[in-house]
Amino acid sequence: MSRPAAAARRTHKGEYIETDTGNKISRKSHIDGKQHIMLGGRTVVMAGVQMRGDLCRVAEKSSDGGAEKEGPTTAIAVGSVDVEIMVQRGTIISTNSVLRPPMRLSRGQMTCYPMRMGDNIFIGPGSHISAASISSHVYIGANCVLSPFCVIKESCKILPNTVVPPHMIVPPGSIVAGRPGRIIGEVGDGWGQGGGGGEGEEWVEGGDLRPLVRSIK
Amino acid sequence: MAAPWANTYYACPCSELSAAAPPNVSNGGTPLELPGSFDNGEEGSTFDPHNPRANYSLYPLDNLLYCDECDAIRCPRCWIEEVINWYCPSCMFEVPTSAIKSDGNRCSRNCYNCPLCTSPLTISSVASPRPVEDSLKPSDAARPQESYLLQCQYCDWTSLDVGIQLDRPTKITEQLVRLRKSKDTKTDPISVSNREETFNNLTNFYKEELQGSTESQTPFGNSPYNSPANLARIMSLYGGVSHTALKKSREKPQPMREASSHSQGLLVYTADKSDAEEEILQRLKELGWNGTTTGEQRQMAPVNNDARFLGQLWPVATALRTRRGRRCRSCRQFLTRPDPKMGSIRYKIRLLALNFIPRLSLKPLNAIPPPSNPAFRLTLDDSPQPLLQPFTPLQYVLTIRNPIFEKIKVSLATPDTTPGKVASKVTILCPSFDVGPAGDIWDEALGSSTTTPSAANDGGRKAAMASLTGSTTDTDRQPEAGKIWEKTRNSTSVILEIVPGSLKPPSRIVTLTKQEREEQAPRQDDDRLEIAVYVRVQWETHEEGPEAGLGKRDAERKMPSGEAKVAKELAYWCVLDVGKIADV
Amino acid sequence: MAASNPSSDYFSSRPSIRTRPSPSVGGAGGPLSPRSPRTPLLSRSINAQFGSPGSFRTEPEDQVVYELGARHLSAGFAGESRPRCILRFDPDNGARVGDYRVYEPFHQKPIRKVENYEAWGQDYELYRSNLKRLDLGLVEDRLERAVRTAHSEHLQLDSKTRKAVLAVPSLLPTPLLDVALKVIFHHFPQPPSITLLTTPILACVGAGLRHALVVDIGWEETVITVVGEYKEIFQRRSVRAGKMLSKAMAKTLEHGMHGESRSDEQFVDFQFAEDVTERVGWCRPRSKPEEKSSTQLRIPLPGGFPHETTSVSFENLSDPAEEVFFSSCVTTNDQDDEDLPVHHLAHRVLLAVPLELRAICLSRVVVTGGVSQLPGLKQRLLQELAGLSETRGWDPVHSYGSAAAARTKALQQRKSNLNMRPVAPTTPMDEENPQVTFSPAKKPIQDSIPHSERLQDDVKDPVTLKAEREAKKGQQEVIRGDIRGVETVGAWAAASLVAGLRVKGVHEIERDDFLKHGHWDGGAII
């Protein structure tokens, strides 16, 4: 529940800043609007990653109550600040990925909606994520585009170079590929089940990513 | 690639192709003295991963299940699927069984896909163009000003392209059905629904005919006509068709007429006149290539099967998906069974092969740097896997990991040259060995006294520590024939020596015929060096307790020692992907 | 339909299709037994003529209908006008589970370079009728995967067992039929029986006809069948079919792209050629229009840069069909028997059947098969047939040489004879036994029957009445002689129609018999 900027524990001058909860944030990442981003812990943000927390709903402070109601009801409010990007534990965001909250033109105004992400999500390098939500144990390959407002449910696998079209809902356990992305199959029953193993073998797609997080230095 | 060991494929022994054992394994003899390689002199007994058939029996390990009643690997060919629920992937609504077939296995709510690109369609509102004379007619003011359309946000197709405009943003299916019906009445010679109409006409016609043939005889309930033999004889007299011929005719025979009009399903064209074809040619000329539909678009849904032009495409209702349980084909027990509750991703039963059969993984010895799991590439500019140079001996570490709680004896066998066009030489330096039982990682770390007394003599502690810390033993060690390379508590590694063959076929004096040349032509993946290894596993288990899955650990522990043990055996082909051979 | 106890009330009130009438309904129809709100009398009586008296269909169960072709498998439910899925065989289906290279954006299909015609498109076909170099095991594997996909993704069957109907091309090689039956029988839910139907008959049924000249232009060969009374009477084949067409299209495209000079090498791959054939290929009419329209079509090239196109004139796109099906450059003398142009083949087939049937079939030309969708093809075929019947008539002798003069004389004579004879109204029924005229007073026939088996000499004899009615209907109906084409709904839809009407198939293979004895003993031979 800590924000990257706050109380960063600088252990050594490595590439990563490690926070109290075990988040590792690359010094080479570009994070805007930190107060709108929440990282759950043991999450890695690698070099070149852009997180656009600044694209948040413009709070109309002076406006009347009616305008407040028009805003998205899905916004997650922590304290008095809206959280635009919420990431749970054990997620890895690889190099040069872009995370920007989805937005759409509504009544002549661009409105941003929050983006939620679950546990143990792997986002491959160079991906562009604008999904409305990504559930736990999702594996996203390299160079994917998750268009605004798509929803990825649990245990899905997005193959590299996929473009998930806007508003697409991917049901649990699907494999998505293609441009535009289509459901091309289902993950095996053993998805995410590592069953132990030696060094390097415990990293399984859709499995527990903690060992991988640990290994990134 | 789903896992680091995903470059290993496992062949389910259910097909005759993958069930074939190498000759000297199946012919008996003590398996422990099995040589590491054998001549593949006997045709057909080795498994060739390059055979196109092999693709149909090889699976990644996480796609395989294991039946603990039959003690056998189960693959999609030898399990039975049982649908637990049907749901729409877009609205996640569970569809009751009764409505599935009538809706064509498609969502009957508001979920539609783009007929061009399959992306989901969204409903957007458009302000309907106000007629100019609107102001003169005050009565029109009451009419709703907005109309709706379906829009694809990926390829910008809208339902307006095919002339669909909706009045309401809800009950889309109903509105579309109505629109399609009203479109039908328009006289379009190449209308896509002609076929349905003809089909329905024909069905009605045949139904009437069949009914008509029986009506006349129902009054004679007790007449000799009721007996089929009599009737057939009589009919053969009048129709001039023999009894056997009568039986042979597929349709309802004698009294049936031919359809004679369009209302009976007869569609006629003559040599000079055919509206439909002329219309098609005309449109083809006008619209050109970009106005026609692709085969994929036509086959996406039955509703678009006959759509030749883009303008004939219809929004496609989202196809339902299913959640399925899987049963063993021979003993019918559930192998996997998801929680019947929608939205839950839990399993009630899940017998995964990876918890039952030993897992093989191949790593280059002395690889610098050790190749990481390709699935978890963190940067884009990671260099691709280097190509293998032909005729250069390479050494690989083959690790066999035991997931069960019994000590297993493993014997490996592989043809000494790989079958197929590229002959690579393979030698397993130590073909048979033991692998210790699986257990808690802490058992391992704390010393192997509590659960695995038999593994203690293998220097379990040291190996366990090594496996925990991830440090490898000294690198100058030389691989030796007949010796195990490395051993931890539940895994054993041996060395594999591989000499990749050349992609070029040996030169010949005789020129090849066309047909031979075609057979010689390299196929895709011929440059991929894959080694088929026949793995034979033997272990002993207690009579009552089935061999331990992960969940059965406690039962296993409580089992008193010195009970009657049952020998079990499992054998399967496993294909290890080494890499691509360079074409030099 | 008052139920005797509350528990059965629940079941009888449900409009469930699964309710099966209890066996006693047929006999006594006791007050307790009827459960189903629908009386089984109708369905039983439809069936009773041909089934044994005791057996009647229990319920309107749904059947699964498959159509197997060399290039595709269609599957769906009986009684529906379209299959739920049409699965094409292509090299991408053959990937391993977990091998996703197919979905990479610039994925190249694993096509082997094709040098001879034999191998053209062989990765896209399930089987070929030349079984010599065909791996039947691979066919089984591929078919098994296709059936599994159809079941789990498109039909989404529950575990209820359903009968199956399989439509196959006539003279499908028996080993292949065996494989197909094996796959479907073994597949879950295992059908208790499979009814076999052949495509020419189905095309005829799907056109609403009893007799037809079915021209099935398929993938490997064009099969022309004379169907009379729903039976295949005469059949001939030609290799001029879809495969040759797509090959010819590849050549045309190649010429368009690279000029005439380089015809040796193959640049146009199968998929592209097929795509072009399907989308913009057409067939020009027999009489060429004077003005040549110079419409050019721009066709994007596959695999290349997104906007790279080639330009082909619209006229040229009709060349392949012209060349393959109606090539006029080669005389029929030089042609192999299996390599006849389609119209010549049709002509030859018609010549081989009796005159009466020929006349009927001529006005019932049914063109079916994948290529029949080519615009203009059906009409062209009729035009060519008309042309042939004009120039050659219906004489099996192609050239009389020096005897030509004698023949014309004889012909003239025959013509005058023909004119003298009044044209008798005929019905479809009487052509095989033309002496029978339909009248209840027709005694001589009955006289030939032993007395014990003689029918009631009742005027209201239903069969006679029916026959008479039919004869009347037939008189106005039978159109014969003039060349006419009839559209068909296609083999799958016709199979679905037949199964939906619950007509009992003749070639029905029971699962147990098949498993015990194999196809040869278990079912009839097609």
Automatic annotation (TrEMBL), chain A:
Any Pfam family matching the protein: DCTN5
Keyword terms, alphabetized: Cytoplasm, Cytoskeleton
Keyword Repressor set for record: no
Domain of life: Eukaryota
Subcellular location field: Cytoplasm, Cytoskeleton
Entry keyword annotation includes Cytoplasm: yes
Main location class: cytoplasm
GO-annotated cellular components: dynactin complex
Family, as annotated: Belongs to the dynactin subunits 5/6 family. Dynactin subunit 5 subfamily.
Name listed for the protein in its UniProt record: Dynactin subunit 5
TrEMBL record, chain B:
Transmembrane segments: none
Region annotated Disordered, chain positions: 444-486
Organism superkingdom: Eukaryota
Cytoplasm in keyword set: yes
Biased composition (Basic and acidic residues): 474-486
InterPro entries reported in the protein's UniProt record: DCTN4
Family: Belongs to the dynactin subunit 4 family.
The name this protein goes by in its record: Dynactin subunit 4
Organism this protein belongs to: Acrodontium crateriforme
Automatic annotation (TrEMBL), chain C:
Biased composition (Polar residues): 1-11
Biased composition (Low complexity): 12-24, 31-45
Region (Disordered) location: 1-58, 420-456
Pfam families (UniProt xref): Actin
Position of the signal peptide: none
PANTHER family: ACTIN (PTHR11937)
Homology family: Belongs to the actin family.
Name this protein carries in UniProt: Actin-like ATPase domain-containing protein
Organism: Acrodontium crateriforme
